[in-house]
Amino acid sequence: MSLEQIQLYVLILPPILYAGLALSIRPPWRIIGLSLLTGFVVGCLNLLGDIFAYNQGWWHYPFTTANHAPLTFYLAAALFYGAGIIGLVGWWARKRFGWRGGVVLLVVFPLWGLLRDFGGSALYNQAQTMIVWGKGFVPVAADFLLWASAGAAGFFTMVGVEKWQDRREK
């Protein structure tokens, strides 16, 4: 699969998946907006984390001369992982299970991210054309911490703005 084909999938699938999550969870419009803010936070941190990792030699994308992946990758991560999983699923988990639901999401999210990044690149038949990992444990730990910090920042941004809006309405 070529980079252009991957970018096409990256532009098509996340909006469909996000819409599917929104239709199945059925949040209020206010939560849709807040989830998009959450996605922006997660996407920006993902980009900054990749730039930092490149400069540290932890991982890089060999198909580009930039110190990060194509911006379409970050838009996809922002929409599906940030807005969809952290935003919508996080809101639903807190609504359904209280804070325990949010805590479970914040634990599972970086584990899933780590599995996706390392497992996906190992299974992908052209793994070395997608991402090149540095040696040792540090890239693994850095990837986990990037997913954990981006997820937590998005989650607590949404919780904070939601509480602020609730207080402002009173």
Quick synopsis:
This protein is mainly alpha-helical.
Detailed description of the structure:
- The structure is a single chain.
- The chain has 170 residues and is an all-alpha fold.
- The protein has one domain.
- The protein is 82% helix and 2% strand.
- It contains 6 helices and 2 strands, in the order H-H-E-H-H-H-E-H.
- Strands 1-2 form a two-stranded antiparallel ribbon.
- Helix 2 crosses helix 3.
- The longest helix has 32 residues.
- The N and C termini lie far apart (53 Å).
Keywords:
two-stranded antiparallel ribbon; mainly alpha; globular; 2 strands; 6 helices; 82% helix; 170 residues
Q: If you average the pLDDT, what whole number results?
A: 90
- How much strand content do the residues show? under 5%
Range of helix content: over 70%
Question: Secondary-structure element sequence?
Answer: HHEHHHEH
Please, how many domains?
1
Return Rg in Å: 16 Å
What summary fits the major beta sheet? 2 strands, antiparallel
How many helices?
6
Structural class: mainly alpha
